[in-house]
Structures are given as structure tokens and as C-alpha cells.
Amino acid sequence: MADNRDDFIIALRYALLKKGAKQKFSLFFLISFSVLIIFLDKISLPITTFTRSVLNDIVYQISFVASTPGKVFNYLNDEKSEHFNIVNTNIILKEEIKALKSERYDALFLMTENTILKQALKLGSAKNLGDEASIRARVALDHNSPYSKSLSINKGKKDGIIKGMTVFSQSYLIGTIIEANYFTARVLLITDLNSKIPVVLQDTGVNAILAGAGKKTDLTLEYLPDDIELLPNKIIYTSGKDGFLSSGLPVAETYLNKKNEFKIKSLADPQQASIVHITRGQFNK
Amino acid sequence: MNILKLIKEFFLNHLAVLALYFISFSTFEGLNSIQEVAIFSFNLQMIIVYFYVLKFPSHLGNGHIFLAGIFNDVVIGIPLGVSSLSYLVLSFFTNYIRNATLRSRMSAEWITFIPALFFSNLIYFIIINNFTHLSFFYVELLQNTFFTFLFFPIFYYIFNYHQTRVLKDNA
Questions:
Q1: A12 within domain boundaries
Q2: A30 vs A32: CA distance, rounded Å
Q3: Are strands A149-153 and A185-189 parallel, antiparallel or unpaired?
Q4: Claim to verify: residue A104 and residue A156 sit in the same structural domain
Q5: How many domains does chain A have?
Q6: What's the pLDDT tens digit per position in A122-144?
Q7: Same domain, yes or no, for A151 and A280?
Q8: Model confidence over A84-93: pLDDT tens digits?
Q9: Which of A50, A175, B35, B96 could disulfide-pair with A15, CB 3.0 to 4.6 Å?
């Protein structure tokens, strides 16, 4: 019995302290060093924050290059799917063009009417907050893992990006900046489990929290009053109650899935975003 | 010509280290990027660490495992040192298995991968839950761990075949 225990301890000690033929560090040293790094990162000293920021910038640049083969593979895969779907898409697009053409005439009429009314009321052109101070960035990395749904973009503090800014793709909100480095920044997507956005439901004025659940087609509404019944095809807007996001930004939409269940889907497809717009003008603060 | 040969030799001899760094940098998540087979995503870093520490420890240093973990943390966006610690715990457990085993068999090594993965992920969960405010998908992680275990034999034979050829060429 004692021999067995001795053997166990010897094997453990050997595994932990013994350096192999080509090993420069023992496992014990590296494990201790890892614990120290976790501790230093947790207490967030200015020096560790700076080091982390520099490390992030360097690693993101290398990571962008290293993820290129994967991106090429995804691109080819997408191209293949697109090729096979092109006929169906073409038919749908033709129908959409027809519908849009008719809508365009309505829009033109409304624009003309709007201009005439503004002239009558002596109002200047309305200021578009979305166009103000919009920073255009390219998506460098797409972190779609079980741990996080986030993007890295190729703009950072150097370009005026700060934590908390709002990120749009194709006019729809896709997330917020959670980490701004000097050259790069990280965007937490609305599909991430940690994303919580105060929202208001169309035609109801009911406030809730829109939370991610990992998928574009499966967002959840938290703190929704019990007596509220969701209706399909209703737009969900930001309420602006967090003090960061402006109110009235369309974020998601309710829909009925194939099993006739009410679900919420994001209006944008964050995983497909390649160019994003970051705005400063959308702050309430 | 000689330079090309040297580069080829370097790549072949350092495949484990290069693969580990490449995967850490490239946000490779097994088959996660392909929507249809995303459920089969697995953690190749863990397979590489386990296999090489168990079978060819001189080809994968602890320092490289530590650094790859740090890079992985930066890319994923979790606190620095978490993946490093997780990989090093896996390495420690694998070292223990290597020292305690007299005769190596693939089936036995496959089974011992379960506790190795368990302890490694346990450390990971403990740190994430106690040191951060991050939430993550437990089901996806469980699937990831399961398929990491399931796909181990495939990579075992691939890496084993590669190492046997490298050792034969170097002899």
C-alpha cells in the first residue's frame, strides 16, 4: 500500500518537475506562471492593460493572416452554394425588382411631398445621425466559437474607436465595441450570450432586454411582462435606456418558425458582415 | 535547392509546434465554420498536446504549449492564461499517464484521454466562472469535448504515421 502511494507521488513529482530532453521549462514553473498571469489580468493594473492591448494588436494582425486559408475555404464553399442557388435567387430577385419598382414610385412621391412640406414650414434638411462621424472598418477576424460570438475589426483607438460605440452592418445594428486597442477593436455581436440590449416592441411600447443565444435566428427577450403575447413580423427597436445606444434603432424581428413557434431573429447577419460602420453620433451620453 | 530541402525538413520536423500555433492564431474550431457539420466541432489543440506529450514529448515543448495558449486567449477574447493553464494541466496529466504506463496501446491511450480532457476542462470552467463574467454555451462545449475525444484515434494514426516517417527519414 505504502509502495503504491510512493509510486504515485514519484510519478506526479516526475511529471510536474522533471524537464524533458528538449524542455526549457518545467510544468510546475509554467503552471505557476499561468496562474500569475491570470491574477495580473484580473486585477487590471495599468501596465497589464497596456501589455494586453499591445499583445492584442500584434496577435490580431498575425491572426488575420493565419485565418486567410480558412476564409478562402469558406469563400469557395459559399461560392459553390451560391452557384447552385443562383437560378432560384434570380427568380426571387426579379420579383423583388418588380415590387421595389412600384415602391420606388411611392417613395419618390413621398420625397417630393416631404420637400414641399419642409419648404412650406421653412425647415432645413434633417440631420442624419447615422451619417455623422461614421467610421468604416473591415472585419479582420470572426470569432464564432462556443465561448464567444464576436468580431475583430481593423480600426482602433488610432481611428477614434472607443469602448461602447455602436456597430452597424448594412444599416442594421450588429453589436457594440467591447475592447478598443490601438490598431484593432473587438465587437461583441448581438447574438452573443453576453449581449444584453434594452429594447422596445413595435406597436406595444413594452420594454424588454434582447439577449443573444448564439444564433442569428434565435434571440431571446428577457424580462418581458407575462401578459404580453408576441405577434409575428413585429420590429424590435432599441429603447436607449442603457445610455449608450440611441433609441429607435431597428435590431430584430419576431417571426414564426416551421414549427409555428414565435422566435426572434436579428435583422442583420453579423456572421456575414465584412464591412462595418461604427458611429459616434448614436450616443445618448 | 538545399534551402527548399531545409525548409521542407523544418516543416516536417516541427509540424506539431507549427500546427499548434497555426490553430491558435487562425481561430480554427474544428468543423465549426461549416454550418451543416458545425455540431462535429472539436478541439484540435488538445489532441495535438495530448498526442505529442504522450508519444513524442521531445517534439513539443511546454513553453510552446504555454505560448499557444496565450495566443488562443487573445484571439478568443478570454482572460490571459486560461487556455495556457488548461493545456498545461492536460500536459501534466498526460506526463503522469506516460510515466505510469508500461506498455502503450492506442485503445488505452484513447480511454485515458477522457480524464485528461475532464481535468483540463474542469480547470477551464473553474477559472472562467470565478475570474470572469463570461457566459458560454455548455452544450456546445460538451459536444466539442465529446467530439475531441471521438476523433482522437483518427488524428492518432495521422500523427503517428507522420512521426514514423519523419523519424525514418532522420535516421
A1: no
A2: 5
A3: antiparallel
A4: no
A5: 3
A6: 665 444 444 456 788 888 777 66
A7: yes
A8: 888 888 888 8
A9: B96
Considering only alpha carbons, which residue of chain A is nearest residue B61?
A: A23
> Considering the domain boundaries, does residue A256 fall inside one?
yes
Same domain, A137 and A37: no
Backbone φ and ψ for A90, nearest 5 degrees, come out as: -60, -45
The mean pLDDT value for B52-77 works out to 88
> What is the rounded distance in angstroms from the CA atom of residue A15 to the CA atom of residue B48?
18
Asked if residue A4 belongs to a domain, the reply is: no
Q: What is the largest CA-CA distance in chain A?
A: 99
Report CB contact under 8 Å: B26, A70.
Answer: yes
| SS3 at position A250 | strand
Task: State whether B28 and A147 contact (CB < 8 Å).
Answer: no
Domain assignments of chain B as residue spans, ordered by start: 2-170
Say what the pTM is.
0.68
Rounded Cα–Cα distance for residues B124 and B141 (Å):
11
Q: What is the dihedral of CA A76, B30, A31, A11, to 10 degrees?
A: -140
Structural domain for A258, as ranges: 132-285
Long-range Cβ pairs for the range A68-74 (8 Å, 24+): A69/B26, A70/B26, A70/B27, A70/B28, A70/B33, A73/B33, A74/B33
Does the beta carbon of A49 lie under 8 angstroms from any beta carbon of chain B? no
Please check whether residue A218 is in contact with residue A227, taking contact to mean a CB–CB distance below 8 angstroms.
no
Q: Is residue A1 part of a domain?
A: no
* B88 vs A contacts (CB less than 8 Å): 27, 30-31, 34
Polymer length in residues for chain B: 171
Which residue on chain A is closest to B24 by alpha carbon?
Answer: A63
Which CATH topology does B2-170 take? Arp2/3 complex 21 kDa subunit ARPC3 (1.10.1760)
Of B25, B95, B135, nearest to A15 by CB-CB distance is: B95
Residues A279 and A146 in one domain: yes
Write down the mean pLDDT value for chain A: 79
- Clarify whether residues A150 and A247 are in a common domain: yes
